[in-house]
Each structure stands twice: as C-alpha cells, then as structure tokens.
Amino acid sequence: MRSGDIIDKTALQSIKEIGSAEVVVGVPSYNNARTIPHVVRAVSAGLAKYFPDVKAVLVNSDGGSTDGTQSAVLEAKVEDLHAILVSHRLHPIHKIVTPYHGIPGKGSALRAIIEVAALLGARAVAVVDSDLRSITPEWVELLVGPVLKENFDYVAPRYARHKYDGTITNTIVYPVTRALYGKRIRQPIGGDFGFSGRLAVHFRSFDVWDTDVARYGIDVWMTTTAVADGFKVCESFLGAKIHDPKDPSTDLSSMLQQVVGCVFDLMGQYEAAWKDTSGPGSVRVPLFGLPYEVGLEPVQIDLDRMIAGFRQGMELRSIWKRFLAESTIQHLSAVSASAEIRFPDELWARLVYDFSVAHHKRVLAREHVLPSITPLYLGKVASLFSETRDSNHAEVEARIETLCNEFEQAVPYLRERWRA
Amino acid sequence: MESRFGTAFVDALAEYFAILLAALPGVLALIVIVALGVGIGWLVSRACAWILRVVGFDRFSYRTGFTNLLEKGNVRKQPSELVGSIIYWVVIIASLLAGLQALHVEAVGRLTDGFLGYIPNLLVAIVILVLGYLLMIFLGRTVLIAAVNARLMLARWLSAAVQVIIMLFTIAMAADELGIAGSVMTLAFSLVFGGAVLALALAFGLGAKDLARDWLEKHVTKGPEDSGKGDGFSHI
Q1: Among the residues of A231-373, which ranges form H helices?
Q2: What is the dihedral of CA A178, A171, A374, A257, to 10 degrees?
Q3: Which of A64, A157, A353, B77 has its CA 20 to 30 A from that of B152?
Q4: CB-nearest partner of B225 from A161, A304, A313
Q5: Quick check: A315 and B144 CB within 8 A?
Q6: pLDDT exceeds 50 at position B228
Q7: Which residues of B touch A307 (CB under 8 A)?
Q8: Closest CA to A418 of A208, A207, A180, A231
Q9: Pick the CATH number of A3-288 from 3.40.50.2300, 3.20.20.70, 1.10.3720.10, 3.90.550.10
C-alpha cells in the first residue's frame, strides 16, 4: 500500500520538509484533548532531557477526534524547561499531526506511526498511550534508550500494578506467550513500547492492518512478532500506569474473546516457533529501570459472584463436550462442586490449550468456543484470589510463576492435541 | 373340437408373443436405463462425496452438530458419504421411473408423473429442515452461552425455548411445502408462539405485573449471589 493511503498529504509534506529523524515518538489518540497535552509535554521534556542531540519527531496519529485533540497536541509545550534540568536542544522537536486511514482502532494508528518512522528512516520508535496520567520524561529514556544505546529491537513495558490487576494477562496471555515463544515478557499487552527502525520495517511488511489483530490485539501481535521472529527483546520498568478508564460498556466475555482470540490466532500464525521445539522452558529478558512495588490498598472483589458465575458455567457442559475430554469435564465438575474453589494449575493450562486447539481447528463456530471460556476464567481467577488473599506482591508473583511453569510443562500436551 | 382348441391355443400363444414382442423394446429400454442409472448414480455420488469432503463439509457438519445428530440416529457414515448415498438412490429411483415410462403403461405413467412432480417440493422441504436444524443448533448455543455469561438463572430454558420455536417454525414451513396439513401446522405454530407472546404481554401489562416483576427478579435476572457491583480490578 502507498504511504498516501496510510497518512494524509499534509503529513507527507511535513515528512518531506523534515527529511530524516533518529527518533520517532508516536501518540495514537481519539478524543483525548483532556489528557494528551500532559503526554506531549512529558515526551517533549524526555526528549530534551535524555536525547538533546538527537533529531526527534513527535507523531500524533488521530482517529478523527472531535474534541480538539489535534490542536491540543500542536499547542502543548513545556513552559519552563529549566525546572526539569534540561539544557537547550540542538534540534527542535518536530510535531506531525495526522489522521490515520483504515479501520478504526489502535492498529491503524500504529500503522501510520510506523509509516512515518520508516519514511524518516528512524533508528528508534516509542509509542505511548494518549490517556496516560502517570507518564514522566523518564518513560522516553526507558523506551528509547535500550534501542539507541543497547541495540535492542523491542522494549516491552513493565508496570507496577496491584497484585490483583491484569488477570487475563496473568492467567492466559503471559503464561501462553512465555511457554510457547520462550521469553518472559511480563506484560505482553502493555500498551506503551519502544522498537528499532529495523523492527518497524519488519512490522510494516505484514498484512494485518485490516484484520481483527489491528482492531483488538495489536499490542500482543507486536510482542509476539518481535519474540517469535528472533528480534532482541528487553523490558523497561515504567512505574505505575494511571490512565483514563476504558469504555465501561465492554463486557468481560467480549474482552476475553478479543484478547484471547488474538493470542490463539497468533499461536496458529507462529506455529513453527513452538510446534517442534524440544523441551519446555523460557528465559528472562534484560530489564531496564528500577522496579518497585505499589501499595496493596484493598480493592473491591466480589468473590462469591465470580464463583457463582463459574458454577453456573457448568451449564455449558454440552458445548465443552464437543472439544474437551470427558475426564476434563468430570474434573471441572468436581472443582465446581467443592465447597471452596481450588482450580488446579495443571487443569487450567490444559483447558487453555484445549480451547486454543478448538479455536484453531474450528471444532465449533469460533463465536461459541471463545465466549464459553468465560465461566472457567472466572473460576480460575476466583481460585487465585482466594489463594493469595493474604499474600504480598512478591508472593503473588511467585504464584504466577508456578502457574507459568505448568503452562510450560503442558506444551507437549498442546503439540499432541494440535497435531491430532 | 381338437382343431378349435388347437386354434385357440395357437391364437393365444401368438397374442402372448405379440404382446411380449411389443413390450420387449420397452423392457429392454427399462433394463438399459436402470443399468445406466446405476452407473451414473455411482459416478455422481462418488464425485459429490469427494467434492463435499474436499470443501470441508464433514468438518462443517461436525461443528454444527449435524454429525452428532446422525450418530444419535445410528448413522455411521460420514455426512459427505451420506449425501453421496442419497444422490445415488435419487438417481436410481429417477432412472427406474424414467425406465417404467418406456413401458407405456398408463397407471405407471400417472404414478411417475405424480412422483416426479413432487420431487422439487420434497427437495425444498429437505433443505428447509436441514437449514432449520442448523439454525436451531447455532442459535440455541449462542443463547445458552450469552445467558450463562450474563448470569441469567434460566439460561438452559431460554436456549431450549429458542430451539423449540425455531424447530416448530421449520416444521411448519416444511409441511406447508409438502402440502401436508400445512394450515394445521401453521395454525399450531401461530397459537403456540402467539400464545406465549400474549401471556408475556398480559403478565407485564395487566394485573400480574407485580408478580411478573417478582418472578423475573427471582428467576430470570441476575442470580441471588450477584451483588451487581463492578470488579475492582483490571482484567487486562
């Protein structure tokens, strides 16, 4: 596809005038006029403070905002650079504001950013969300630095999160990506990341931009592509991520269907990366930044409601029977009937793999396979919450580590089912 | 006397041979047409089964639950083979009827004309029944999953109700196509469906509205354990 079909003419003209840049920082947006000025200021300050000699461009890829997001980007500037101990930059920071073309969503926004980066010949690209309230200038250093200074190709974010946050990541996305592709990327769907120009060119060569991957799963696609295609990967600790609440109308079942569906699709796409690899296991990747823990203030969890959802889910037995073994269903019935829900890790790992096989082989309509995992997910999460009620952050991480090991041990089971 | 008997016998024999000779081309034509029908039927059925297998009809049937239905009916063939067999027998019956017409027997002619004229209705009715069954399975599962995920306490009943309505509607349409008590089936469907809607409307709109509300709160809306509160943690 031509560049003119991805970004608009004004942006192309700006790119022509700028010529080239070493660093591109992309900010995808849609009606974020309230929060985006802070993000732009933090990025500008970060570039000025940590990369004063580097020619940099800030790209706002907008999905057709009607609240003045684009003008908010152009008007935002750091009033007093001395206050953050920044010397004068050799190069001004250019701004490109472009509406993206293609299907609505973060995927199309990223495609425009990648296109700009490729046209400018950027060595490093960072992408940050436009609704961030906790971004600091250090995020730019942590996302761009490993690429420019240490020659990494992909920088995944690691955030300080509450022990109960990120349950889909903790119980499905992280264990599966780690077990199959062998790299421990703790937050594969983080939202903010950095990558090299080389990887930008690689991303650009894919034809995923008009699919569900672009709509719902671009983050996990980028992480998986970087890891499975053998690029040099690391993590950066960014601290807490505080952002505007997402659309509350998105229900859990749809969320699971979108995220887990993308993970399962990627399993099929990158089958060669895990199908014949011998022996389970994974390795840590280098971590930049200084990790710290966040407080464990009580959060509202309705465990009874989750358990009731899991128990009621046993009504889907007739559907699961189409792709789960009878012994697995009996095991689930026993777990559901017990007074205190304890969902064994081994059972959960095998269930997730069974669902991935059913999704891949289209044993049932995909509209039926993925939503039917929701009650089981509720059961697993309820079990984890109840087991770690009195645990601290490190103990919860150790518990997730145990779960991940089960996923790694169960990979031969997946291979066998996948081939059958 | 002997001569009269001999003449009568010879005449009868001559008439018999004359009839036999007159019918012989027709009988030969019948045999040839049926033999051709067997050969063509075998070829067409094999070709259809192969094409269906290649385009993934067996997998589609498994996903939609059609294979399961066949297994319940003790049919051990793959769906593609079953369709092939049906085509084989349709070709044989059609060639048999075409062959019988070659005999020029009036009663057989009327029978075959009637049967051949009925075949399109029969095929349409079969297609309606198969599509109706597939729709019933698909929507039944969709409703069950959505209702369970929404924590509706009568999820299975809702799913079953949707399936019964679709099946009744399908049977009424198929019967109408076949001309078998079509009006009775349509009337029965209208009565069941209309009655259910009327009962619900009355329950909501008239004196039983409080009872209906209590009943719905108790049985249909969120379960008793459901506090209705949102999650205090992020799933992603």
Answers
A1: 252-269, 271-274, 303-312, 317-320, 326-337, 345-361, 366-369
A2: -40
A3: A353
A4: A304
A5: yes
A6: no
A7: 225
A8: A180
A9: 3.90.550.10
Report the CATH fold assignment for B120-223: Helix Hairpins (1.10.287)
Beta carbons of B223 and A169 less than 8 Å apart? no
Residues belonging to chain B = 236
pLDDT value at A256 more than 70:
yes
**Maximal C-alpha separation, chain A:** 69
Cβ–Cβ < 8 Å for B142, A367: yes
Please report how many Cα atoms fall inside a 13 Å half-sphere around the Cα of residue A268, on the Cβ side: 13
CA A204, CA A115: separation in Å to the nearest integer?
7
Task: Nearest chain B residue to A241 by CA: give it.
Answer: B234
Does residue A366 have a pLDDT over 90?
no
Quick one: pLDDT band at residue A212, thresholds 50, 70, 90?
confident
Per-domain boundaries in chain B? 1-104, 120-223
Nearest to B63 among A252, A300, A362 (CB): A362
Q: The tokens of B85 are what? A: 């067999």
Instruction: Find tokens 């849609």 and name the residue.
Output: A30
pLDDT, mean of residues A161-188? 92
**A365 and B155: CB-CB below 8 Å?**
no
Domain coordinates of chain A in residue numbers? 3-288, 303-419
Q: Assign A69 a pLDDT band (cuts: 50, 70, 90).
A: confident
A-proximal residues of B, 107-166, CB under 8 Å: 138, 141-142, 144-146, 148-149, 151, 153, 155-156
Query: Which of A 346-365 lie inside 8 A of B, CB atoms?
Result: 362-365
- The C-alpha atoms of residue A316 and residue A375 are separated, in whole angstroms, by 9
| Nearest chain B CA: its distance from A217 CA (Å) | 12
Inter-CA distances, B190 with A75, A190, B158, Å:
65, 54, 19
- Using CA atoms, how far residue B17 sits from A45, B12, B13, B23, B67, in Å, is 113, 9, 6, 10, 55
- A48 is written with which tokens? 């000025």
Instruction: Quote the minimal CA–CA distance from B154 to chain A in Å.
Output: 10
> In this structure, which amino acid lies at residue B119?
I
Residue with tokens 């609505």: A104
| Residue A12 pLDDT greater than 90, yes or no | no
Closest partner CB to B232 (pick from A161, A259, A299): A299
Q: What distance in Å separates the CA atoms of residue A95 and residue A53, rounded to the nearest whole number?
A: 17
Backbone torsions φ then ψ of A239, nearest 5 degrees: 85, -155
Nearest CA in chain B to A374: B149
